[in-house]
Amino acid sequence: MTHIITLTERAQATAKGFKKYPEHQQLVYGVESVVEAELPSPTVDLNGARSFISDLCLDLEVDVPSVERRKIDGRFVACASYRHYEITFRASTVSTLTLCHELSHLLVSQHAGHHKEWRNKFVDIARQAVSFEHGALLYNLYNRCGLSTAWK
User: Fold this and answer.
1) Superfamily assignment of 4-144 in CATH?
2) Distance (Å, rounded) from C-alpha 56 to C-alpha 93?
3) Phi, psi of 42, deg, nearest 5
4) Helix (H) or strand (E) holding 117
5) Residue 103 to residue 95: CA distance in whole angstroms
6) Tell me: the pLDDT tens digits for 55-113?
7) Spans of all domains in the chain
């Protein structure tokens, strides 16, 4: 793996491509882009996504959201709906890290956005469901980019 300083610089540079979002959200997306490039997570189709989320939710002892594939806002790969308790993605496949990202939204306060409460949940879920390395890299890059995150 490339040195952590180089990865941090790449995350910060990538974040600049998300200019229409608040700075912390730009950095969240920049970090995730680098993590997916450095440690690609498995991709799954709709049935695989439903199975992945169902198994994960059973492990976490939380309600299982519906998982759907349909047209959504082109700015997003996937989205979470609190109102429908649903994860939606638009392409024929989606990464398991993206599914963890969206599930994390459903498991924290609707107003958590991409702030610390959400980042903590995402790191924890990614570590458990994808790999320890994914969780550790997210944690380290978030903190090195100035986004506080707790390790549980």
Assistant:
1) Metalloproteases ("zincins"), catalytic domain (3.30.2010.10)
2) 18
3) -60, 145
4) helix 116-129
5) 13
6) 999 999 999 999 999 998 877 899 999 999 999 999 999 999 999 999 999 999 888 88
7) 4-144
